[in-house]
Amino acid sequence: MRFLDLITFAAQALFCHRLRTALSLLGVSIGVMAVLILTALGEGSRRYVVDQFATIGTNILIVLPGKTETTGGFPGFGGVPNDLTLQDAEALQRGVREARFQAPISMGNETVSAGERSRQVPVIGTTHTFMTIRELKMHAGSFLPQGDVHRGAHVAVLGRDLARELFAGEGAVGRVIRIGDFRMRVIGVLAEKGEFLGINVDEMVLIPVATCMRIFNRTSLFRIQLKVDAASALDRARDRVVAILTERHGEEDVTCITQDAVLTTFSSILSALTYALAGIAAISLTVAGVGIMNVLLVSVSERTAEVGLLKALGAGKRQILAVFFAEAVVLSFSGGVVGLCGGWGLVWVLGVLYPTFPVATPLWAVITVIVLSLGVGAVFGVLPALKATRLDPIQALSGR
To answer: How far is the first Cα of the chain from the last one, in angstroms, to the nearest whole number?
Structure first.
């Protein structure tokens, strides 16, 4: 029997039991769609993180209070031996030659109001260099002024969306807002930036770091960020930062994180998550394979007379085996094709609904589901095919 004849014969046999075939196809296609969608979400998450970090480069050094080896957890969690201070930031500015820009950061959440309108938003205290480090642009006005870092002026720069909300589309520059109990004059509005790792820059308020520390009654910094001249100088800059702060604090009690290291860690975690999601989704393909096996077992029982006739006409065991094996493969492959089309369609819809999230199905996932769908048919089609080959031709012709 030629290959084309075999496939045609298998397709006709499946078509004769349309409802049963359709349900099996549905099971396989759902499994394939689950693999495609979940891997697309995982890959999209990885690409989103990579794109977010790529917008500000990989030559950023972040200094956090606390050391992971001594605290046993996230830096700064549960208290630290020594706080990061404005004096520490100034020491780093003077002593780390590899760092072109340095910005101390303090932050908190507070209610920001203008007249009767108010919102609780993140309040970031920093200096004029933060604009360069984070590659921010201005829509109107100017950014935080230069000057003595210890003398915080009562001025603020608003995110674009927050300015629209507080002033209803009117000009915000020169207007007065309140941050908690403090009156602040708006000197600038940022250009639209969107979200960065879940934080909406367009809804933030930026104020001088010393002012922020007074508002939230703090003496320590949240972190210090440095922008190194080149990524190749990151290691030297990190060693220099640790040396300076160790000398000032009397012990090594800070953690230096590079953007590149964070990006690599996030990418590894999200890749592992994507593989795990694909494995979980692939379980549904196994369930669909059991359904295919059940369908073909019933089909063998109902077609005993047909099998007997084939054997009486001279068909050997290999040919009978090939017939039922081909039915299983055709069924699973067809379900795989339907699932691929449906999965790609749903991924496309997700991309349209959430254009900022780079959802995409990786090539390895497409190849995997094709191989899995064929493998499911091959593995679960063996038992029904073997059962058909063992039928006695005389008893089969009698329908027993």
So the answer is: 27
